């Protein structure tokens, strides 16, 4: 079950469960589309994998399996990750 993390690990932008701007890698590292495509150039800085759009969990299933509330933000944000 995907965690549906609530924010971009790079810029800390909110990414609610219904966001079409969320991108994930195979380990569920979560970034906004802008950071994933522009800053990180499509490569996850944590595992080296690529990104895919995060699936949107139907609202009725969020009641049974809610999204994560744990925010993950990398020290130094985008600039440190991109280098």
- The backbone outline, from C-alpha atoms, is globular
Domain count:
1
Largest sheet: 3 strands, antiparallel
End-to-end gap: 31 Å
Whole-number mean pLDDT: 93
Count of helical stretches: 3
Q: What's the total number of strands?
A: 3
Radius of gyration: 12 Å
Short overview:
With 83 residues, the chain is an alpha+beta fold. The protein has three helices and three strands.
Describe this structure in words.
The longest helix has 7 residues, at 33-39. This protein has one domain. The model has no long low-confidence stretch (mean pLDDT 93). 23% of the residues lie in helices and 10% in strands. With 83 residues, it is of the alpha+beta class. The termini are far apart. It has a three-stranded antiparallel β-sheet.
Q: Main attributes?
A:
83 residues
Secondary structure layout plus pairing:
Blueprint: E1 22-24, E2 30-32, H1 33-39, E3 52-53, H2 59-64, H3 77-82
Antiparallel strand pairs: 1-2, 1-3
